[in-house]
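User: hey, got a sec? need Butyryl-CoA dehydrogenase folded
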Amino acid sequence: MKVPEHKEIRELARRFLSEQGGALRAYEEEEAFPWPLVEGMARLGFLGVFVPEELGGAGLDFWAYIALLEEMGGYASLRSVLSVQQSLVLTPLLAYGTEAQKERYVPRLARGEVLGAYALTEPEAGSDAGSLKTRAYRDGDFYVLEGQKTFISHANVAEVFIVFAKTDPDQGSKGISAFLVERQDGVRTTPLKGKLGLRAADTGMVFLDGVRIPRDRLLGQEGEGFKIALSTLDTGRISLAAGAVGLMQRALDLSLAYVKERRQFGRPIASFQLIQEKLAEMKLDLEASRLLTYQAVWKKLSGERYTLEASMAKLFASEAANRVAYRAIQVHGGYGFFEEYEVARLYRDARILTLYEGTSEIQKLVIGAHLTGLRAFA
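Assistant: Yep! Here you go:
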């Protein structure tokens, strides 16, 4: 499978991480959002990679975006910013937004002047997104939104939210619509602290207490929200798979460096059979995940439906990332248990990959439905 290498953006990302990546540790320890690092990524054009230049983006292709996510994957709190901004916010805006909506939001988001958030999950609507309770009522030329969202990335730092709410509760998932909501409309948020991983990535709750927005903030058509949500998650799952590939690559690179330096029984542990077995298993998981991710990208760019390929890539790569991070700890031995060694952070960061944007269990049901033609859930 031949894919574009995009060496320039890879080198740009590597240089950025070499110069500034080390600063992430302090933000992780404080559970603080790394604004200076995000601003640095914005200056390099990382927040609008595949957005056309006329709309403020870098004007590159989707492969360049995947290459960037791979390079940034070992620094998951930073990779998360890129994924949320582009896969979850800019992607549906470019696909479903009116020209006026694109002009209002896309350039500022692509240049990183403002951050966006994707507000779908609720306290009682996670995997079952169709059961969300947030309502949107028509009031003349306005919509009034009532409800709350949880586990929302960028909740406390975003200025623009794509909010999913029911405009017709009697229609179930077909009664869900999507809206462009601005913080200044009266959105309230609160942080969620104490995460196992992604400690420098912002997560929080979003409260919509009678938030009033003009009718022209409807994204797409009424009742089209669930379709928008699912199509957006297909792209998001590819981005997570690419990020997982990057995390695995970082874990393997660190492990290879360590085993060549660490000596036991008078020789480098790299020469031990069981160490080599672990390294081989890590490499297999990494490359299999990479190929599944690239297959999903090819399907997406072909213009065909790629839900199955995105789910397979996300499922395998997220589970593989946890296996690889586990083995990296084993290779480092007792040292790997201490935060001084980067593999400890990689181990923590890998865990979320099997949970958000569809748990591993949900991915299996998506794949099963494609195989059998029967849905295991409504």
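Quick note: The CA atoms of residues 315 and 361 lie 9 Å apart. Let me know if you need anything else on Butyryl-CoA dehydrogenase.
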